[in-house]
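Let us work through a complete example step by step.
Step 1: write down the sequence.
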Amino acid sequence: MKRLLVCLVILSVAQFGYAADLRRAKPESVGMSSERLERIRPFMAKYVEEGKLAGVMTAVARKGKLVHLEKVGKLNIETGEPLKDDSLFRIYSMSKPIVTVAAMMLHEQGRFRLDDPVADYLPEFKDTMVLVDGVEVPQTHPFTIRELMSHQAGLTYGVFSDTPVDRLYRAAGILRNKNLEEMVTELGKIPLLNQPGTKWVYSVSVDVLGRLIEVIAGQPLDVYLQEQLFAPLRMVDTFFEVPRDKLERFGTNHIKDPETGALKVFDSPETSQFANNVTFFSGGGGLVSTMADYLRFAQMLANGGELDGARIISPKTLQVMTRNHLAPGVTSGFGERPGTTGTFAFGLGFGVAVEEPLSNLGSAGEFTWGGAAGTIFWVDPKEDLIAVLMVQMMRNPYPLRTQFKNLVYQAVTQAND
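Step 2: predict the structure and record it as tokens.
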């Protein structure tokens, strides 16, 4: 019986590896330790057993080989359905790298230049002003596509701060518009938070970028992504709206009850905005995906823009995207702690480690991003390593991402100098 269970587990992993086209390999064959990778699952299981998280799925690949894939806990805490290999996750801001890559595909075709003013393509921003000390003044220069991709355009989100401009975003319902065209129309009426190129402010920039793709490509963003990115990469389970026939694979999203500390449901599949007549294709946070699909995307990046014969972008384009694009004196404010300022910057669609990390294990040159429900991925070109963490927990109070990262790197036994 025990042998049968082991065989079933191996078969399940092999089938997943086939679906993701990342063949399972013994960790030792790619310079990692099986024993040390085995520390990941019980660590995540403890979070689930203590009721802090509903479920966690983790994956690690090195040199194009899948060396770790584990899942613990539930997909849906209302039904008790367990996590499965093909479970669907709200990836929120992990949509941003996907959409930025999609935009850079148009850049490679000569459809725009990075330093073109966004207003050349989206005239709604032609006369947008900047709010400085309560007074609206003209932009020192029209914000560019490069500044849009690197969150230096002067836009904001409307949800993370309470500045006068953020309040205007909320009053206009920027993230509740019916489509990207309507969102851009409303945004063009609101002043910028700061002069372009002077600050890094996490923002709706990639949602605007999604609208720019629609205008340049002449297609809705969901159609463009499906035809130009998802189909070539065989990402069969990534979309803005969960199809009805896949709804059973889409679980609950959670949040910590401030009074009891217990998990409670934040979003249920049947009533989710991700499953019911989606018309606002949020490039900044609207995609749903699976572990297998996101692994394919990440491995394409690790391969320099190609996977299984499908060339998505050039290695040279990816090099540009993963350099620091912040203006001199501008810091991202993400991923840094006292004494580590300047080690983490921002490229085009990715956070970038410009120096060897000081707070956590990792490498200079790795690029990464995460999502609001606690998900994260990164690509480490130096170590030829990718890792993905999938979880569904809003305002996650636990240091899960950094713990997972350290657990991955402590399993490396043969580092690349």
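Step 3: interpret the result. The two ends are 45 Å apart (CA to CA).
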